[in-house]
Structures are given as C-alpha cells and as structure tokens.
Amino acid sequence: MQQGTGFLTPRQRRLAWLGFLLAAVQAPVAAKLVSDSSWLFSLVVALMIATVIIADDTMRRQPADVRSSD
Asked: Where are the bilayer-spanning segments (predicted)?
C-alpha cells in the first residue's frame, strides 16, 4: 500500500508552513503593539493556512489506491 500525494508540491508545502509560522508569530506581537483589533486578521490568515496544511496532510495519509477509485 503506497502513501498518496497531497495537492501541494513540496515547495508549496514549505512556503505554507513558513507563512503559517510568520502569521502565527505576528498576531500576538501585533496584539501587544497595536491598540485596535487588526491583529485578528493575522490570526484568521494563520488558521486558514493551517486548514490547507491539514487538508494536504489528510490527502497524503490516504492510501493511493483508495483515492484512485473515486
């Protein structure tokens, strides 16, 4: 049974992780430095990127023969 491949290329996956980490670190820093709630945007972006990474992980963990029969 072979592992499946995700919809992200390895380069896109690395960039998604980098974007997630940058947005996740920037949100609390912005919350500390900015008086308004604009830091919530960084939090939402980090959560959206995390959702994409989780979806890609799910596709990668499925056996390749399961997805090909759909």
From this structure: 41-59
Using the Cα atoms of residue 26, residue 28, residue 34 and residue 39 in order, give the sign of their dihedral: positive
Phi, psi of 26 (to 5 degrees): -70, -30
pTM of the complete model? 0.78
Can you read off the two tokens belonging to residue 19? 């974007």
Asked whether 66 and 3 are in contact (CB, 8 A), the reply is no
38: confidence class by pLDDT, cuts 50, 70, 90:
confident
Ranges of H-type helices in the chain = 10-33, 39-61, 64-68
- Count the residues in the chain: 70
Please report how many Cα atoms fall inside a 13 Å half-sphere around the Cα of residue 51, on the Cβ side.
Answer: 6
